[in-house]
Amino acid sequence: MEELAGWKFLRAADKLVRRVARTVIATEILLDFHSWERMRMLRFGSLLTLVWVIVCVGCVSGPSERAGGKRRGPVRIGFSLDTLKEERWQRDRDLFVAKAKELGAETLVQAANSDDALQLQQAENLLTQGIDVLVVVPHNAETSAAIVELAKKQGVPVISYDRLIRHADVDLYVSFDNLRVGEMQARYLLDRAPAGNYVLIEGAPTDNNAHLYHEGHMKVLGPAVKSGKVKIVLEQWAREWLPSEALKHTENALTQANNQVAAVVASNDGLAGGVVQALEEQGLAGKVLVSGQDADLAALQRIVEGKQTMTVYKPIKLLAERAAEAAVRLARGEKVETNGVLNNGRKDVPSILLDPIVVDKNNIVDTVVKDGFHRLEDIYRNVPRDQWPRVASSRVVDSSSRAN
């Protein structure tokens, strides 16, 4: 009980220290030169408060004490997400929180609904709650630098999760090799349609990953375009990754090309859904190649129905768990093993880059089903039972018989 009381006291003291520090910073900004004496008095008073807190904390032997700069007790993680509207990000959240809990850490989650100002406000709120590390999925790669700056002022390390924050002192980047994702999408389509009209539906221009995907697309398609084999009839960015944007752009492309389109490079599965809708309206679904990314259930259903050609599967469990492990290690002052760096315009950010996987109708069972990412029954829901993969079908029969 004494140890628990000490822990509670320390957490309260930690909050007080942070509040006093913010007061001093705010005062330095708001007071002008002529108020120098007032500021000195305020800082002196704040210093006395800090000393008092430190002395009191020194009398408590709580589990959250640091020894040698390393945190011994429970870690508190702040997780700031751009959005939870898409299935993919709900999975990230759940898997991250579960792994952090397994490691003995608490995770505070906030989602900004793709609102830059709200995400900054939520990050500030997380920092006031005494977090030891901040993990950010940025809505805007540029403006999110302000979040990093806030965290740094409080000595809180920052992990950029899946999307890289630009022009900021980010401590670690954990993601998939997103340049390779773009290359995979374009290469898959080009191998099957080496000539003809192409449409490129890129992601949100505010998302650094969208630019990496585009770079990968052009790295593969560039030579074919230069030779004249491939013509890009339309290339557009989809605001906020909205499927409605993809629908609109694809409709425009089909009009411009008189429906003569060989392939549409859609940067993710949400956009692919908008593309397929436009193709269906013209009776072209299944006749035009369409890429995607994220292995969303709706996309996998379209693939087995023959409406979408492929997706890029990024094992989210691996990403979330590696990020959670890294967050706990950073909070404890321990070394994090990385396998690369990525420049964000300010620094070469130490990075953990994971391998993505191409998924089509031929390997769905051996990838997303095998990993438990989606169930075969759900993927093939709209397909006659006799068209299900034979081996996977027997597995479903076995599992259903066991349930009975």
TrEMBL record:
Stretches that traverse the bilayer: none
UniProt keyword Signal present: yes
GO biological process: D-xylose transmembrane transport
SUPFAM superfamilies: Periplasmic binding protein-like I
Periplasmic binding protein domain mapped to chain residues: 77-335
Assigned keywords, A-Z: Signal
Pfam families: Peripla_BP_4
Protein name (record): Xylose-binding protein
Principal location listed in the UniProt entry: other
GO CC entries: outer membrane-bounded periplasmic space
Organism: Pyrinomonas methylaliphatogenes
GO molecular function: monosaccharide binding
Gene3D superfamilies, per the entry: 3.40.50.2300
Compartment(s) where it occurs, according to its Swiss-Prot or TrEMBL record: Cell envelope
Family affiliation: Belongs to the bacterial solute-binding protein 2 family.
